[in-house]
Specification:
heterotrimer; A mainly alpha; B alpha+beta; C mainly alpha; B: alpha+beta; Rieske Iron-sulfur Protein; 3-stranded antiparallel sheet; 3 helices; 12 strands; C: mainly alpha; Cytochrome Bc1 Complex, Chain D, domain 2; two-stranded antiparallel ribbon
């Protein structure tokens, strides 16, 4: 993958510049000529979709900040000013709000693709771990962003989640006071969340560059999980995947557009259109949908500290996935038991999300606990055992062979 | 065979060009809201004009109002001020331009050209010294009309000493231009709309 | 893939069933329709003007609308008052301001002013209303859910305007066993999201014929509730028509672009597959 470039500058200026900053060669090697397995399916387009959503969020965010005021007395009003008075302000706000949800839809599909096809397995362990870090940065960014409109859910969500830190023994209260900049969520908190919400997306962009770098060392995984044996297994990224990704991105934007223009408040919470009131708690405090599974795990454990530990562990355990999965076979395509269990796990995650949206009463509590146990069991018990005990299906000898086999119509 | 392949290449090129063109148009149209959001918003535009009730300004009085973020003098001149302004020969004026946004092609800085609609008793000007932007003091300076021991009309800018006459024209001092007359019109004999 | 679909449908069924478990109001809102619903819905200008009159004559005595300015009433996609009408109706409101000497005065409203609050501040509002704060109405139809349920809301909307309509038409006599527990100064309304006892009085709000419409339209409680809830849907979303119109144009464009990209993709990939 690294090595001498195909780029031969033809003009004198081209040669001069190439000797000083070989960026054209770099783009040619990594974005145009990059040898990519020729059998990637549409689940592989979500990386490109994520890059586009990141740009959408950054650009819409920057223009929104031109009109937003990060002070508790003016934040809510400034958002309404954007919605009512700023030219196209309603569009920019709805794009940013809906964009956050679609950023997470894309990231979950991207992560589940990685889990199904074994993209986290050697030699891509660091690539996977960088991905988990990207996911954590996304969660922090979105959490702080949701506080900025200073609605009821902005305030109370911030209060509940920052209060979790007080569960840490000995230093918990100091840390929470330090986070708040005071004795509760108030103006200092809003201001620092604003600063960090602006900062983190650029940190994210940097980590994404590391992510793509880590990908380009071994090259992309593919649906068979079988490594590339030679040029017969690959096609240049451009035009094959620029166009395939381009189509997938536009298809994704169509769904995104349907929500921006026809259902912008569907995924949100109506109570956030009420200005924050520290003296009045909403009937049901819940986070945005993309946090719900983790919220369910948090609430399943009656002990405050253990609940916090369980919640953070449920994300951090992803870092160990490359070593928890013991299977020698990479792709789920050839692992019949794993394939089935994968879908069970996916349903468990969705079900946990559902539980997170319900009040913690009645049978919801018991179900939350059962699902939480299964979630951890999947990583700690099921995956390790399955890898050792499962009999995989026969693997094709190469990507090309697999592509040819599929191309021949069955008689 | 060669023709069919050639045909396919041509169709592919056309399709790619068409797609590129459609994508390009989309990119430009998408960029527009992001650029337009920096233009003045509806709340700013709403304050873009103000109405002033002239009946509450007695003769010899002036009010300072805020319009588009800047102060504006609305002065009800008395006869002495108007006569003094008309008596000034145009050759004496430091700035011969009327600086009146209501005149098509600005014209000379005669007293008629410093007002609108022939209503010479009302003078409407930006209260921003054309030197470096301070607000000049009214009823002061060498070019005010002296009546008894009081001065009426005229403006003196305390920052660097510019002096304006009873029609708000620069006569002495570092300011280069007459105080500009903003666009305004009479909605009735007692009401004007600025902007 | 088929397994994926069937398992996901099973999971989704859980969401679909989530309606009943979670109602905050005793009753979900009455599912009436409005002219502005659906991807091609628009506001009925005459209805918005009638709704404005209901707000002015009935609601504005207790409820502020601080995010709406008088000039908005002449904006595109709204009730469609003229500039002159807006000037006139703004002048019927008293707005706080400072005079030239810095003293506090009340002056006639200008189009650029926002709707003034009937009370000096929240505490004054509560004191005048038995300890309950009449909420600001600018965003009320976005701040309330008429019903719950993930799929229900996807198909039927969130029901904010219907919530307001149901609340205004929902006053009834409490069931006999509850009547004796009635808190003082409160009224029974099963559509209220914070329990069944609401501080807003039925008699103080809508009664048949309370607002006489300029165009002679029907003015029963039901009509007035429909009109004012539609008006409040506009105050919450004044850009709704522009949003749907722009959405239509964007969707058409993206569909064309998607089609072109798909055709190009297929062409390019023909040699590989």
């Amino acid at each position: 993958m690294s090595g001498p470039s195909n780029y031969q500058p033809t003009s004198a200026i081209g040669k001069w510049f190439h000797e000083r900053l070989p960026i054209v060669a770099f783009v040619k090697d990594h974005a145009l000529d990059f040898p990519t397995p020729k059998n990637l399916n549409y689940w592989w387009t979500f990386g490109g979709i994520l890059a586009v959503m990141m740009v959408v969020q950054i650009i819409s965010g920057i223009v929104l900040v031109m009109h937003y005021t990060p002070h508790v007395d003016m934040a809510f009003a400034s958002v309404e000013h954007i919605m009512r008075d700023v030219n196209y302000g309603w569009l920019l706000r709805y794009m940013h709000m809906t964009g956050a949800s679609f950023f997470f839809i894309a990231v979950y599909i991207h992560m589940f693709r990685g889990m199904y096809y074994g993209s986290y397995k050697a030699p891509r362990e660091v690539l996977w771990m960088i991905g988990v870090i990207i996911y954590l940065i996304m969660m922090a960014t979105a959490f702080m962003g949701y506080v900025l409109p200073w609605g009821q859910m902005s305030f109370w969500g911030a209060k509940v989640i920052t209060n979790l830190f007080s569960a840490i023994p000995f230093v918990g209260d100091s840390i929470t006071t330090w986070l708040w900049g005071g004795y509760s969520v108030d103006n200092p908190t809003l201001n620092r969340f604003f600063s960090l919400h602006y900062l983190l997306p650029f940190v994210l962009a940097g980590v994404v560059i590391l992510h793509i770098w880590a990908l380009h060392v071994p090259g992309n995984n593919n649906p068979t999980g079988i490594s590339v044996k030679g040029p017969q297994d690959t096609v240049p990224f451009h035009p094959y995947y620029t166009l395939k990704d381009g189509f997938a991105i536009v298809a994704f934007l169509i769904v995104y557009g349907l929500f921006v223009f026809y259902g912008p408040n569907y995924m949100g919470d109506a109570v956030n259109y009420v200005q924050a009131n520290p003296l009045s708690t909403p009937a049901h405090i819940k986070p945005e949908w993309y946090y719900l599974p983790f919220y369910a795990i948090l609430r399943s454990i009656p002990n405050k500290l253990l609940g916090v530990i369980a919640m953070f562990s449920s994300i951090l355990i992803l870092l160990f996935l490359p070593w928890l999965d013991t299977s020698r076979v990479r792709s789920g395509t050839y692992r019949p038991v794993f394939k089935l269990e994968f879908w069970v796990f996916a349903v468990v995650c969705v079900a946990l999300g559902y539980i997170g949206s319900r009040p913690p009463e009645g049978s919801y509590v018991m179900w939350g606990q059962i699902l939480t146990v299964y979630y951890f069991a999947h990583f700690i018990i099921i995956l390790p055992l399955m890898g050792l005990l499962e009999t995989p299906k026969a693997l094709p000898s190469s990507i090309s062979e697999d592509v040819l086999a599929k191309a021949v119509p069955a008689k | 065979m060669a023709d069919a392949a050639h045909d396919t290449v041509n169709r592919r090129d056309f399709l790619m060009i068409a797609t590129g063109a459609v994508a390009g148009v989309g990119a430009v149209l998408t960029a527009w809201p992001f650029i337009n959001q920096m233009n003045p918003d509806a709340a700013v535009l709403a304050m873009a004009s103000i109405e002033v009730d002239l009946a509450s300004i007695a003769e010899g009085q002036e009010v300072i109002l805020k319009w588009r973020g800047n102060p504006v003098f609305v002065r009800h001149r008395n006869k002495a001020e108007i006569d003094a302004a008309k008596a000034v020969p145009l050759a004496d004026l430091k700035d011969p331009n009327s600086r009146n946004d209501n005149l098509k092609g600005s014209g000379e800085a005669s007293d008629e050209n410093r007002v609108v609609g022939g209503k010479e008793q009302f003078l409407v000007m930006m209260a921003v010294c054309t030197h470096l932007g301070c607000v000049p003091l009214g009823n002061s300076g060498e070019f005010a009309v002296v009546q008894g021991n009081a001065k009426t009309g005229g403006w003196f800018c305390p920052c660097h000493g510019s002096q304006y006459d009873t029609a708000g024209r620069i006569r002495k001092g570092p300011a280069p231009e007459n105080l500009p007359v903003p666009p305004y019109k009479y909605l009735s004999d007692t009401k004007i709309q600025i902007g | 893939m088929k397994k994926f679909a069937s398992l996901l449908i099973a999971a989704s069924a859980l969401f679909a069933a989530s309606g009943a478990a979670f109602a905050e109001a005793e009753k979900s809102a009455k599912p009436i329709g409005y002219s502005f619903e659906g991807p091609f819905g628009t506001f009925d200008k005459a209805q918005l003007q009638r709704g404005y009159k209901v707000y002015k004559e009935v609601c504005s005595g207790c409820h502020a609308m601080k995010f709406v300015s008088f000039r908005n009433l002449a904006d595109r996609g709204g009730p469609g008052f003229t500039e002159e009408q807006v000037k006139a109706l703004a002048a019927t409101f008293k707005v706080h301001d400072l005079d030239g000497n810095g003293a506090s005065i009340d002056r006639a409203g200008l189009p650029s002013d926002a709707f003034p609050s009937p009370f000096a501040n929240d505490d004054a509002a509560k004191a005048a209303n038995g300890g309950a704060l009449p909420p600001d109405l600018s965003l009320i139809t976005k701040a309330r859910e008429g019903w719950h349920g993930t799929f229900n809301q996807l198909i039927n909307g969130i029901g904010g305007p219907q919530y307001v309509y149901s609340l205004l038409t929902g006053y009834e006599d409490p069931p006999a066993d509850m009547a004796k527990d009635a808190p003082a100064g409160k009224y029974y309304n099963p559509y209220f999201q914070n329990g069944i006892w609401i501080s807003m009085p039925a008699a103080g709000t809508l009664t048949d014929g309370r607002v006489v419409y300029d165009d002679g339209a029907k003015n029963t409680v039901d009509d007035m509730a429909k009109d004012v809830s539609a008006f409040l849907a506009w105050t919450a979303e004044p850009k709704m028509e522009e949003r749907k119109q722009t959405g239509f144009e964007v969707m058409i464009y993206l569909a064309i672009l998607a089609g072109l990209l798909y055709a190009v993709k297929k062409k390019i990939w023909r040699d590989i597959h």
